[in-house]
Amino acid sequence: MANLIKKIEMDHFRGASRPSVIEFDPTKNTVVIFGENGRGKSTIVDAIDMVANGMPGSLADRPSTSTKQHLPSVDSNHQDLSVKLYIDGMEWEASLDGSTIHVSGDSPCPTVHILRRNQLLKLIETQPAQRYEALRRFVDVDGVEQSEQYLRDCVRETDAELTSVYRQLEDAQNELEKLWKDEGSPGDSWLRWAHDKSQVDISETKTLAAYLTSVIDSINNAIGSKDRFDTSFSDYQGKCNNLKVVEEEIKSSPGLSAEEAIKLLNILQQTQTYISETKEPITECPVCEQPVVAEQLTDSIQKRLTSMTEVKELDDRKKAAEKQLQGSENTLSTHLNQLLRQSQNVIGIVSENEHPGVPELVIDVEKYAGLSKNDLDNKEKHKLCVGLVNTINKCIEDLRHRHTELQKDINQHNAIKNHYDKVIDCLKSTLHVEKVLAVLQKALDIIHSKRIDFTQGILNEVADEWNRLYKRIHPNEPLGNCTLSLDPDRRHSLHQGAEFEGHQGVPPQAYFSDSHLDTLGFCVWLSIAKRGTPQDTIIILDDVFTSADSVHLRNIVELLTDEAEHFGQVVITTHYRQWRDRYRYMQSASGNVHLIELHRWSLEKGVRACNSKLVLEELREALGKEPFDRQDVASRAGILLESILDTLALQYGCRTRHTRNDDHTLMELSNACSRLFGRLQIGKSPQLVNAPLTKKQVREAVEENFTITCPLDIFSKIKDSSFVRNQVGCHYNISGMEISDEEVEEFGDDVLSLAIGITCQNCGTLPGRNRGTHFECPCRLTKLMPLTM
Amino acid sequence: MTESNNTPNMELGKVVVETLVSQGLIAPENQENILSTICDGRMTASDWKSCVEMKILKDEGKVYDGKSDQED
């Protein structure tokens, strides 16, 4: 068998305050762990959850708890915690580092689904969004859904792009139409007009316009140069006049002639400078070598210089006027050169005129040939330049007008061509984007509908299985027919509906009883768990049912018996003693069930378990025990006999005394079943001698002939000796003391034989399933006939 | 239930991609890449557009060796 938990080792984990080992029988795929409340059932399930799923188990649903503090047992801390899980020769170990669960192992742990009671409520009673979350991993197509959302974004963006292209097209069309109308709406349509216009070659116009631009620029430059020269010349003349005025003032000054006075002034200034710069005071005149006193000479020179202030001012003004004149001469020379160069440039451009179609440009080039010759002086060249500028000044406005007209034509052509090209580009883009948008929209429709269909298909399959399972537990009840559907308007929202007393689509949580809601939640969980690869899946039910009555509990147990074969392993924990006893008394298929019973818990001892035995096995062991315990055998045989007769009486409706608590005596049950045993036949497959059988062997065996036996003789014998149970097994009396051990042993052996004969040795069940003509056991290898009395 | 199993994405992704290919909306040679991209939720808006445009250009004979005429 694959994916069977064989052993769990827990240490300092929740209720496992001491090292605890729970071993599962590897030959049986169903494990029923019975324990009264507080004995460690959830500890075992949480341990499996921690290792298999890396989850803190039931603590995850208790917000007031912390993994670090409460996952370790109460007297330990997180470093002490250890859980090991053994599955099919592999092992995984979980430990706790603070609040973080670490799981180590050979490979990914097999899938383990765990159902707890609070999850039952989530599945049924929660809001649609939370219900979806509970089922998310089975219908979770988030990846595809995200890609669908991106596709939806893409459709929206492409639609916006198309709108933009439409707008650009409309703008370009409007512009063209306006230009067409401005032109007087020539031709049939603006589009044809625009096409024809845009095809016209205007290269000559552009060349002519460019030529005119250069001509006009050169003329403007020449005119500008002449203006600058004229200004410079005026300035030059002003500077000359300034110098003349100063020179006249010097000539007309009184006393020494101006030239002489200025010379003397310079000598005195130089002497003053000489005296002040000598290291030693002079003692004689540097010119005449006559003895002098330096201070006196200095004072004398200063006095003379002071008396020559006016002469000095005249000298300074003259020097300034000369300097300004020199600057003006330089500027004038520069501007003359510029004027000559610009004039030559004009003549050059006009001479190279390749566009005789410019009648506005009337210049006699030969007349100005001297501009580029060296034999003319500047005055003559200036005269030519002035003549040229005056000439071109007359035609500049005409040239500008001509140039403006040409540029207007060019601009008009460019506008038409640009708008026309835009229209054509937009038309092409429109076709392309429309095609892309159509494909994207179609893809979006496909992915959306496929996703809805896919998810709803899964939900429908789940709902069908859900209803099938639910009908097994609640046959012939006017409720069920559950449906699951995604809310089309809300993401991750799952609605459920059910039938109740002929009303369809009602919320089951509004009308169903707690017991029905429990089983409803269980069935939806089980139907979901069966999806995918259940044969590789381990399912665990952690004390799920708390409100099921005995009839529904029987149906649940039978359902699990049948459904267990789909899964790798089924682990059930329960505090229902009745659940355990159904197996112990072979009322449900015990052949493939490993019964485990938990002892009373204490902090000192932790979680402890032992194997529960079938009452049949306990009787067999009691019979073989030495020394022989007569009371034990009589008691166990009597209880086993009672359970068989009680089951048969109920199954066949045997008449017996009606009591409030069904507390029939053994004798009453025996009497009630006497008539039944007179007709009862047991059919067994010959293959049962090799029991337990594989599933394939069981399928083949049911096709073979059955061996029929009648249990009347052994029943009669047991009935006659059934007093042994009361007198030896139950009470103190003298008569009982007279019964020999052999009689007690024989009674026990007979009951054991009847039990073995009437139950299936493969599945360990007393046949109880109505097949129309007979009752049969779950594995169908043992029958009881007839069907009714 | 706590175990995560993401096969529904792949199952649905296959159905979607096969339909898109059969409807001629995407090129068959891109099927494998697109499948994983869609299932992982990484098929962005620009991916969708280039995928569809490539198919249209191919259908119009404007694609050679994965490049459009414009790119050439």
How would you describe the overall organization of this protein?
The complex is a heterodimer of chains A (about 800) and B (about 70). With about 800 residues, chain A is an alpha+beta fold. Chain A folds into three domains: about 230 residues, 3-Layer(aba) Sandwich (Rossmann fold); about 160 residues, Helix Hairpins (Orthogonal Bundle), CATH 1.10.287; about 170 residues, no CATH class. Chain A contains 23 helices and 19 strands. A six-stranded mixed β-sheet of chain A has the order 7-11-12-3-13-14, with helices on both faces. Chain A is elongated, with a radius of gyration of 60 Å. The two termini of chain A are about 40 Å apart. With about 70 residues, chain B is mostly helical. Chain B has one domain. Chain B is built from three helices and two strands; from the N terminus they run αααββ. Chain B has a two-stranded antiparallel sheet with strand order 1-2. The longest helix of chain B has 16 residues. The termini of chain B are far apart. At the A-B interface, helix 1, strand 7, helix 4, helix 5 and helix 11 of A face helix 1, helix 2 and helix 3 of B.
Structural features:
heterodimer, A: 789 residues, alpha+beta, Rossmann fold, Helix Hairpins, 3 domains, 6-stranded mixed sheet, 5-stranded antiparallel sheet, 23 helices, 19 strands, 56% helix, B: 72 residues, mainly alpha, two-stranded antiparallel ribbon, 3 helices, 2 strands, globular, disordered N terminus, disordered C terminus
